[in-house]
Amino acid sequence: MIKYFVPKSLKEATEILSQNDCYILAGGTDLMVQKHRSASLLPTFEKDVLFTNEIKELDYIKVDKEGVHVGSVTKYEKMLKSAQIPDIFRKTIEQIASPGIRNMATMAGNIGNASPAGDTLVPLNVFDAYLVLSSTRGERKVLVSDYIIGVRKTIREKDEIIKEIVIPNLDLEFDYEKVGSRKAESISKVSFLGAYKLEGNIIKDFRVAFGSVSIKVVRDKEVEKKYIGLTKEEFINRKEEIVSDYSKLISPITDHRSTKEYRQKVACNLLSRFIDNIK
Ligand SMILES: Cc1cc2nc3c(=O)[nH]c(=O)nc-3n(C[C@H](O)[C@H](O)[C@H](O)COP(=O)(O)OP(=O)(O)OC[C@H]3O[C@@H](n4cnc5c(N)ncnc54)[C@H](O)[C@@H]3O)c2cc1C
């Protein structure tokens, strides 16, 4: 017999998770779709379900010296309306689904779903954002890039819940692009975020991440290091080498949304355009 839990506090939730193997359900906009059987039937769960929606203490956006803390039940629409959320995250979120879905869905759910096409995962990687995982055993911090280890695979232990996501402060110039079939309700075929900081004529910081072109977001700090410290002209002159480096890192697949050749080409074009636009 499947049990449904609706805890009202984080403490209550972690106690339930310490004794029961549960699906954690936030907005349900991924999980309900995955458990859907047919139009006339309710979704079926083969193990217990813990709903997070009533854990009001996790519905927050706070700022401190570490960065912006987003509680795991905070909906996208609340993030969109908050001036505390970095602009590039709001730009990403406003291209996710539609207002109806964004009033249900959470960034914790986007991370927990661990899809290669999860749109917030791209800026979360570029910002080196991390999660605070909570259980009755205590708390631990994990980078989002380490939390996701494959398609729908994370390192979450059964008794853990994402308490919050922490987005560190980052003062860079950004170029984000999501390529989908249409303007709204579109899952990414490719997504791209390039970021840089120029001090005088020197590239002081350079970060690039791609979504939907591998089993998880592609970001490579070793490649980035190669180009940090160059002058702007040297950087732009090495465009072909930069594009070639990333071209080797991405390994898109062909699926119902797009072909691997299209994804590879578009990803390289977006990177190339980002480099051309560095001012
Ligand atoms: C019509 C439609 C359009 C969509 N468009 C987009 C889009 O453009 N871009 C995009 O990226 N996604 C899109 N999605 C997918 C989905 O809306 C997002 O991934 C959303 O962020 C999921 O959030 P949720 O709260 O609904 O997650 P849920 O479905 O509740 O959960 C998703 C996963 O996260 C886990 N989880 C949730 N909360 C926690 C927690 N606190 N601790 C640990 N694990 C947790 C769950 O166990 C589950 O595995 C779309 C979905 C629909 C139905």
Please characterize this protein's 3D structure.
The chain is an alpha+beta fold. It has 2 domains: 4-167, Uridine Diphospho-n-acetylenolpyruvylglucosamine Reductase, domain 3; 173-276, Enolase-like, domain 1, CATH 3.30.390.50. Helices cover 32% and strands 25% of the residues. The strands form 4 sheets. A 5-stranded antiparallel sheet has the order 4-5-10-6-7. A 3-stranded parallel sheet has the order 1-3-2, covered by helices on one side. A 3-stranded antiparallel sheet has the order 11-12-13, with helices on both faces. A hairpin with a 2-residue loop joins strand 4 (61-64) and strand 5 (67-71). The N and C termini lie far apart (61 Å). The relative contact order is 0.11. The structure holds flavin-adenine dinucleotide. Flavin-adenine dinucleotide is lined by residues 23-31, 33, 52, 72, 96-97, 101, 104-106, 108-110, 112-113, 118-119, 156, 161-162, 185, 187.
Query: Which word captures the global form?
Result: globular
Discrete helix count: 12
- Mean pLDDT across all residues, rounded? 96
Small ligands present: flavin-adenine dinucleotide
What is the radius of gyration?
20 Å
**Into which percent range does the helicity of residues fall?**
25-40%
Q: What is the number of strand segments?
A: 13
> What profile does the largest beta sheet have?
5 strands, antiparallel
Corresponding CATH architecture of the largest domain: 2-Layer Sandwich
